[in-house]
Amino acid sequence: MKLVIVMLVLSLSMFAQDKESEELKKVMNSFASAMELIQHGILHNNIDEMNKGAKMLRTDDESFLESHGKALIRHMPENPEFAKAYAKRTGEKIRNYADSLDEQIGNRTKSYSKISATYTHILHECVGCHQKIRKR
Ligand code: HEC
Predict the structure, then answer these.
(1) Structure pTM?
(2) What is the domain count for the chain?
(3) Which domain, by its residues, includes 106?
């Protein structure tokens, strides 16, 4: 009986872990779609696409760390405090860059070089976390 309970608890916690990882992947894939939209918008002078991409980035980033902290930490069990602090900082940066994108897209002069520079800053944040925290 004890063994059955242990197995049940173990499989339930694995199920929860899988679910957390799936949720994190969902956010990540949405981030990726947002970035593709922004890039497509930049290259095709399409303001709507850029706006839509920036909006998607911000929505997914809002509770990014709070909702996905556990799944993130699993990638860096040896230093969970660093993973949390890093994710928090990166989340703030992505949000600030998304604000800059909004401003630059809304600006009458529409400087595509400024918009693409901000896009590149965001991409650096994505890659930075993938290199530091993501293990696979
Ligand atoms: C704070 C850390 C962090 C940031 C910031 C981050 N990622 Fe990720 N990303 C991860 C981790 C961890 C995984 C691996 C998830 C897993 O497989 O459990 C991942 C996975 C992914 C994947 C693969 C998802 C899949 O289905 O396997 C994509 C695509 C992705 N990220 C895109 C992005 C983009 C685009 C950005 C920037 C806008 C970004 N990420 C920012 C940590 C981060």
Answers:
(1) 0.88
(2) 1
(3) 20-133
